[in-house]
Amino acid sequence: MIPISSKIAILGAGISGIAAAKQLAKYEPMVFEASDSIGGVWKHASFRTTKLQTPRCDYEFSDFPWPDRDNSSFPSYVEIIDYLHSYANHFDVLKFVKFRSKVVELRYIGDENHREGKGEYGRLMTGHPVWEVAVQTNDDFDSIERRVVSKIIESYLLWKLPYEKHGLKPEHPFHEDYASCQMAILPEKFFPEADEGRIKFKKASKWWFYENGLQFDDGSKLEADIVICATGYDGKKKLESILPQPFTSFLDYNGVMPLYKSTINPMIPNMAFIGYVETVSNLQTAELRCKWLARLVDDRFKLPSVENMLGHIEKEVEVMKRTTRFYKRQCISTYIINHNDELCEEMGWNSWRKNSWLSEAFSPYTSQDYDEDN
């Protein structure tokens, strides 16, 4: 295979990958996408009825609004893919994407100190290769007021929806689900179908297959021709499969992936992780992190020392532990405004993005609030 040189490699052409390619376009990055299309999970893990679980105006790029952004309906996955294609075409990003190019291994060829986890983070653009990419082509904001609001929402949901009737009431409070991005919009007629007996629920800590379907730890059985394990994906396992040692051992720090500003692992040099940490609106925060990363690449600001970055991460983890037992999911929805404020301040932007203090206090933030023209 003939080696190809590029200053920046981007793994995956989903929402985060396309946003990163747009922000780093002047460096002509190479985007490696294993499939034959952009869109990530929206393209390859969606069903006919899959829809966005937020209004479209809450899921848009800051400089590319939806053509019908005032439409209050939740867009289908097809609409989202069309929107992403329109964005990529408008900013001429597709020319950077190498389709059917699966990254199978990363090799570190940089500073020996970093190989041992001892190096300090310097400039991201070193002027010489750091990684070889092998490609197969074919502060605590958990306030009393927030908990009161969460309790009101929880009480409303339990009154409005028959969770208790079907044995679906969680044993943990609503704010823990919100803080770990474990919310979802129910499909149409979900509970009416359950009331008719066409959807059944079963709680079990263990299950296994038997000749006619599934058997559970209480001895009950469920006959089934097809079993779909809708368990999501594990980004950490994907990283472990391509990163060399010792960097795979740096993916876990006190139980979580250590990411400064949800992007930089202080112990892995010249690498950024845009789409790893979740929020309620992944597109909005992914784009803002890409803008932050582009300015870091341009050397407009410096990262703290590795020690200080790890200290910052430790404080964030402790706050998340007090907020939800599901902190290892690495979701920062409860602290998203604070997170965005910190990114803005580090880029030299005013963290107040509205035109007045009244709007700051009572108006929700959207992607357009983080447009660079603002």
UniProtKB/TrEMBL annotation:
<dbReference type="InterPro" id="IPR050346">
    <property type="entry name" value="FMO-like"/>
</dbReference>
<keyword id="KW-0521">NADP</keyword>
<keyword id="KW-0274">FAD</keyword>
<dbReference type="InterPro" id="IPR000960">
    <property type="entry name" value="Flavin_mOase"/>
</dbReference>
<dbReference type="Pfam" id="PF00743">
    <property type="entry name" value="FMO-like"/>
</dbReference>
<protein>
    <recommendedName>
        <fullName>Flavin-containing monooxygenase</fullName>
        <ecNumber>1.-.-.-</ecNumber>
    </recommendedName>
</protein>
<dbReference type="InterPro" id="IPR036188">
    <property type="entry name" value="FAD/NAD-bd_sf"/>
</dbReference>
<dbReference type="GO" id="GO:0004499">
    <property type="term" value="F:N,N-dimethylaniline monooxygenase activity"/>
</dbReference>
<comment type="similarity">
    <text>Belongs to the FMO family.</text>
</comment>
<keyword id="KW-0503">Monooxygenase</keyword>
<keyword id="KW-0560">Oxidoreductase</keyword>
<keyword id="KW-0285">Flavoprotein</keyword>
<dbReference type="GO" id="GO:0050661">
    <property type="term" value="F:NADP binding"/>
</dbReference>
<dbReference type="GO" id="GO:0050660">
    <property type="term" value="F:flavin adenine dinucleotide binding"/>
</dbReference>
<dbReference type="InterPro" id="IPR020946">
    <property type="entry name" value="Flavin_mOase-like"/>
</dbReference>
